[in-house]
Model the fold of this input.
Amino acid sequence: MFRGFWGLKIVPGKTYSQTVDASFRLSNAALGATVVDELRTSVVLTVDDKSFVLCSLTPGAIEQQTLDIGLTEGEEITFETQGNNEVHLTGNFIADDMDSDYDSDEEESDEMDLSDLSPEELKELIDEGLIDPETLLEDMEDEDYDSDDAEADMRIREITEEDEEEMIEDLESEEEPVPVPVPEVKIKKQAKKAELKRKAEEEEAAKTKKPKAKKEEPKKVKEE
Done:
């Protein structure tokens, strides 16, 4: 995993020594924009008091060279050239394991699972410019479905004429629910209870009812 740009401009006659404080990868060497002479210029790297020629550049023939050299944190290194032309070295810093894990976690957290979003949420994200609708449609078209899963998913199953006929037959064959009869014993008990209640109310009414006064018949006068 690479992060950040690394570069060094080597001027003829000068050496560049340093202790590597962050690991980096040397990926390219190229002649500078101004060429002094047509002779070859070699790039020399010294590590642990041992010198190595990384490449030789010749104007009009080989003006740049791809490299793949990693230099580790803590190493003592020196760059220099042999020749009269300026050379530019370029590369990238190398992320350590912790940075790599962090970057991967960050990338995963930035990814959004659109399948969990409702149509309203998708529309809101599209209106805010966070989702490109064309890209969303392409992703939906490119998504692969397993045939077994597709058959099991009733939302994407096509209803045929046979399915419609079966559904109609099932609806027509359904019988109306038969009402459950109330047990006869229960009806008799309720009727008896009501009769007893009625008689009790009649007796109570009879007790509270005042008797009517008897009319006295006029006495008949006996004729002598």
